[in-house]
Design brief:
With about 290 residues, the protein is of the alpha+beta class. It has one domain. The chain has nine helices and 14 strands. The strands form four sheets. Strands 8-7-9-5-1-6-11-12 form an eight-stranded mixed sheet, with helices on both faces. Strands 2-3 form a two-stranded antiparallel sheet. Helix 7 links the parallel strand 11 and strand 12.
């Protein structure tokens, strides 16, 4: 069955619009989309993880009014204009809840998620979501001309050949027809700095497995050193709530278990996890 036949009409038209203009190899089914966000943020007086538990869904900036990126998801705003261009106007008169959700394709298999610029933790989406996602490179804020879908993905080769700042080294994804935690999420992956905190307690109330990544560690001396300078210090700054961080949602609505997802691909293999699986240029300690 063509997956587009069971999607809401807008989502189906958006996917068809993007797919009509792209060609390339199919996306490997073992790759995953991650939705990076800050799990200790509060929206409307409600902690983000409590809001996720309440709603059972991850929501876009059009619904929440919050973001770790630009706050332009409103009539006349940049996000509205970008979506109109990318999806051929399909969402121009859509209700906020109908609009796509933003994440990134973790083609580099990073344990910190595909786009740590937008949050130190992430939701890792199930492989079934790939078929209803569209992709662009670079970020939609740059008004890109290169796009992809699961059946035709030319963007990985583009990204691998490009030289970006490590925090901009991601392929943006747009998940259509929503993200329900119980249906679409393989795991919530938290930064290790949240162990034994209220964030961990809230995370364990979600209907998804909880996993951990080792986080980043940076010496204070390295923090102030010129690029490329080698330094050493016993004082360190760890990632977490102060870490880099577009949770496209700001939600409500990404190791306890290093088991790889069921697939013939190696994205979450022991070798990748042992190496930290992080972007070159950052030093990630082993768990």
């Amino acid at each position: 069955m063509d997956f587009r036949q069971v999607l809401p009409p807008r989502a189906r038209r958006a996917l068809d619009h993007v797919a009509a203009g792209v060609s390339g190899p199919a996306l490997h089914p073992g790759l995953r989309i991650t939705l990076n966000f800050h799990p200790d943020r509060v929206r409307g007086g409600v902690p983000i993880l409590d809001a996720l538990a309440r709603d059972g869904a991850y929501h876009s900036q059009f619904v929440t009014g919050t973001s770790n990126g630009g706050l332009t998801a409103h009539p006349g705003g940049d996000r509205t204009r970008w979506e109109s261009r990318i999806f051929g106007g399909v969402y121009d008169d859509a209700a906020p809840v109908e609009r796509p959700l933003y994440g990134a394709l973790n083609f580099r298999h990073q344990v910190v998620g595909a786009a740590p610029r937008f949050g130190s933790s992430h939701l890792r989406l199930a492989g079934t979501v790939l078929g209803r996602a569209t992709f662009c490179y670079p970020d939609s804020a740059a008004e890109p001309t290169d796009f992809g879908v699961a059946s035709a993905m030319p963007l990985i080769a583009l990204a691998e050949a490009d030289e970006q700042d490590p925090l901009n080294d991601y392929i943006e994804s747009h998940v259509h027809a929503g993200v329900l935690l119980a249906r679409d999420v393989e795991a919530l992956v938290l930064d290790a700095s949240y162990r034994d905190t209220p964030v961990e307690e809230a995370a364990r109330r979600l209907p998804v497995p909880l996993e951990w990544h080792p986080g980043y560690r940076l010496t204070v001396t390295e923090l102030g050193a010129p690029p490329g300078a080698g330094t050493a210090s016993s004082a360190t700054v760890s990632s977490g709530s102060a870490g880099c961080g577009k949770g496209a949602s700001g939600a409500p609505g990404d190791l306890e278990s290093a088991a790889p997802p069921e697939s013939d691909a190696p994205p979450y293999s022991a070798a990748v996890l042992a190496s930290g699986g992080h972007t070159p240029g950052f030093r990630t300690p082993k768990a």
